[in-house]
User: What shape does this take?
Amino acid sequence: MSLRDLGVEYEHVKQDRVDGEIDYDKLSSVMDEICELTNHYYELVPNTRITRNAIRPLYRESNINTELLAVNSLLEIEVSLKILLGATKNMAIINPMDYCFNCLNIKLMELEQGTIERDAILTYIQKSDKSILDHQI
Assistant: This one.
């Protein structure tokens, strides 16, 4: 069962009452599973933001989404670093920019003379840096 499912179940168990009483055995069982999965997550993805307080179980949707965003950011950083390391390693064989573009499947095409896009880019470059000459672009 996922943390999201357990979080939903936790909320249901808290709200469901049998003879006016909360089923504390079921609540404890669900919370134990949540704590186990939370501990497993923090073993895989250490958290340096929480240093003074105990780590809180991940059962709220907002907390889970925050952690998912952090994991996605880490994965994007990992891919970026691998591409840059590969570009550095192959620097003698291929231009690092070309290596990165090839890894990301980016194809650059020269803009034709007189197109709106080319004129807009040239105008932007010329207004940004007066020292660049037309033949350098």
